[in-house]
Amino acid sequence: MRIVIAGGHGQIALRLERLLAARGDEAAGIIRKPEQADELRRLGAEPVVLDLESASVEEVAERLEGADAAVFAAGAGPGSGVGRKETVDRAAAVLFADAAVRAGVRRFVIVSSMGADPAHRGDEVFDVYLRAKGEADAYVRGLDALDWTVLRPGRLTDDAGTGLIRLEAHTGSGPIPRDDVAAVLAELVDSPRRRA
């Protein structure tokens, strides 16, 4: 199975790439910086250098050709400002979903955030982040050409994974190890169904 991951050098994506390679899948991580390529290769993933903030849907679709699944795990990151929440957390997710449709990739998983809501109010950076994630989620849900799953983990930690994961439409709030999120993603790429 070939899985293309947007945000290929992110903390969740690196863990996911390692898991996919270990089980014999072909993982490709989309990265912005060429200097990140060697780390992906060490994990067994193919680096794909492409900036999702400036790429066209055609360029992204070309990188998705032949993929069995696409995972959007990119994010502007906690140190970024309001503008990048829009260009990465919303616009790049929409671009990646449109490219998956164009390339004929049906299985699509998007890593969102607990509390994401397109109607979220407020102008602080975290408010804009939750609104951007919510808008991206809503857009993906509207694409009938995709077998999508929206994964909304809680506060991410670097603790060791527990393997104790509960997938539900609504859960309480709380932290979750990135290892566990990556393990869930590895299972979800094999489970075509629409679920938020």
From TrEMBL:
Transmembrane segments: none annotated. It comes from the Bacteria. This is SDR family oxidoreductase. The lineage of its organism: Bacteria, Bacillati, Actinomycetota, Actinomycetes, Kitasatosporales. Residues 7-192 form the NAD(P)-binding domain.
